Amino acid sequence: MEEMDLLSEVARLYYENDLTQSEIAKKIHTSRSTVSRLLQEAREKKVVEIRIHYPWDRASALEQKFQTLFNLKDVRILESHGRKPDEALKGVAMLAARYLSSILKDGSVLGMSWGRTIYQTVQLMQPDRTISIKVVQLFGAAVPNSKIDGPDVVRQFAGKYNGDYYSIYAPLFVDSSEAKQALLQDPHIRESLLLAQKADIVLTGIGSLESTLAPSQTWLGYLSREAINQLRKQGAVGHICAHHYDISGRILNIDLHRGIIGSGFDVLHKTPLVIGVASGEGKARAILGALRGHHINTLITDDVTAQLLLDSLPAPDSTLVSESVGS
Q: Is the pLDDT of residue 321 over 70?
């Protein structure tokens, strides 16, 4: 028997027919240790690929509390069951993918940020239909040719539905008003930014400036560690679409924002549905600032992050108001 045929047969008997390794050894006239080695080799050579389908349960009581407390349009909170942070992030991304699949319809215009969480969400999208949608990048690229960057993420998302995508082929920041104005005159960039103004859904990650989190290589390409520390001293706790805000949601008045090539909070605040997706204990304060500033009106996160956010609130939290984005 050829090697790959043997590996496939042993894998079939073990994984599909539920034979024990000893039973397989007798059937193919070899030893149990050889069967064990063949099963390991089958996995190494990708004859067998094992996927664990976790039950992505939701924390309904926390969801209700958040929806009431922050007057959210919708909320999805993962019941993480003690999973590791990377596994919890995948679960949150899965909830986001399922939520998007349930709300997208013909004619939808989806504005997207980019980053690790958004990339994960796109990878987990499994649409069962083709619909006419437009997916637009909200702001410039930070890491050329990176799989988590804007142009590639919007292209992949649109491709899931056979829709159209609109990229911004420009850097995230420029350091002069002349350079910015020149880029904004580019017809393709202008087309994307005008379309973003018409978005009915925005999907965004929520960046954090917690000192416990190491700055991502993406941001270190634009901001030195000293500059990031200075932002923290100015009160910055998070950022959405490259715009930084404090714990109350107030947008910082800093030169950095004036160099951004892309959409700002004016777009978020007039878009009917703004979905913020974030996971991890270091994101709690950034999420709180986003909620207080009404920069998002739909939240998708995990229960550990959500509970940490609630535990940080004063009682009562007089800064909370019952006004939502886009209402």
A: no
Domains with residue ranges and CATH for the chain: 3-44 (1.10.10), 60-311 (3.40.50.1360)
Looking only at the bridges linking them, the beta strands covering 243-245 and 238-240 are antiparallel
pLDDT in tens, 181-207: 999 999 999 999 999 999 999 999 999
Specify whether the CB–CB gap between 279 and 308 falls below 8 A.
no
pTM greater than the 0.85 cutoff:
no
What lies within 8 Å, CB to CB, of 35 at 6+ separation is 10, 14, 21, 22, 24, 25, 28
Q: Which residues contact 215 (CB under 8 A, 6 or more apart)?
A: 223, 225, 228
Question: DSSP E strands: which ranges in 90-157?
Answer: 109-112, 134-137
Residue type, 174: V
Fill in the amino acid letter for 17: N
Q: What percent of the chain has pLDDT over 70?
A: 88
